From TrEMBL:
<comment type="function">
    <text>Catalyzes the conversion of 7,8-dihydroneopterin to 6-hydroxymethyl-7,8-dihydropterin.</text>
</comment>
<dbReference type="GO" id="GO:0004150">
    <property type="term" value="F:dihydroneopterin aldolase activity"/>
</dbReference>
<dbReference type="GO" id="GO:0005737">
    <property type="term" value="C:cytoplasm"/>
</dbReference>
<protein>
    <recommendedName>
        <fullName>7,8-dihydroneopterin aldolase</fullName>
        <ecNumber>4.1.2.25</ecNumber>
    </recommendedName>
</protein>
<comment type="similarity">
    <text>Belongs to the DHNA family.</text>
</comment>
<dbReference type="GO" id="GO:0046654">
    <property type="term" value="P:tetrahydrofolate biosynthetic process"/>
</dbReference>
<dbReference type="GO" id="GO:0046656">
    <property type="term" value="P:folic acid biosynthetic process"/>
</dbReference>
<dbReference type="InterPro" id="IPR006157">
    <property type="entry name" value="FolB_dom"/>
</dbReference>
<feature type="domain" description="Dihydroneopterin aldolase/epimerase">
    <location>
        <begin position="6"/>
        <end position="117"/>
    </location>
</feature>
<dbReference type="InterPro" id="IPR006156">
    <property type="entry name" value="Dihydroneopterin_aldolase"/>
</dbReference>
<keyword id="KW-0289">Folate biosynthesis</keyword>
<comment type="pathway">
    <text>Cofactor biosynthesis; tetrahydrofolate biosynthesis; 2-amino-4-hydroxy-6-hydroxymethyl-7,8-dihydropteridine diphosphate from 7,8-dihydroneopterin triphosphate: step 3/4.</text>
</comment>
<dbReference type="InterPro" id="IPR043133">
    <property type="entry name" value="GTP-CH-I_C/QueF"/>
</dbReference>
<keyword id="KW-0456">Lyase</keyword>
<dbReference type="Pfam" id="PF02152">
    <property type="entry name" value="FolB"/>
</dbReference>
């Protein structure tokens, strides 16, 4: 079956994440890159968004999962995001997520985790 790739580049949000004392007191910025391979099961009809997976729904799911509660580790957060995308969107075949902390260190642009899951 053919697939279509939906991607997000540097989706920026503030999240409660981390185990350090200052991270427990305040939010910090996260950047999220995501690639989702989606089954193409029907022809696209330009006037009907129901013929494609609406990427607004994917974005809302990512933002919700990243901002719903404090999480100690990026590894935990990235697993939760990937699992939720696969659970809520049956047409998603593969998800590749990268979550980074751009403010973690002053001597690099960001540090983060990348994860890939497929069905």
């Amino acid at each position: 079956m053919p697939t279509r790739r939906i991607f997000f580049t540097q989706l920026a949000l503030d999240a409660r994440i981390g185990i350090l004392e200052h991270e427990l007191r305040a939010t910090q910025p996260l950047h999220i890159d995501a690639e989702l391979d989606v089954d193409v099961s029907q022809p696209v009809h330009d006037q009907n968004i129901q013929t494609v997976l609406d990427y607004r729904l994917l974005r809302n799911t990512i933002v919700d999962e990243c901002t719903r509660a404090h999480v100690n580790l990026l590894e935990t957060l990235i697993e939760r995001v990937a699992e939720r995308l696969l659970e809520e969107f049956a047409e998603v075949r593969r998800v590749k997520i990268r979550i980074s902390k751009p403010s973690a260190f002053s001597d690099c642009a960001a540090v983060g985790i990348e994860l890939e899951h497929s069905r």
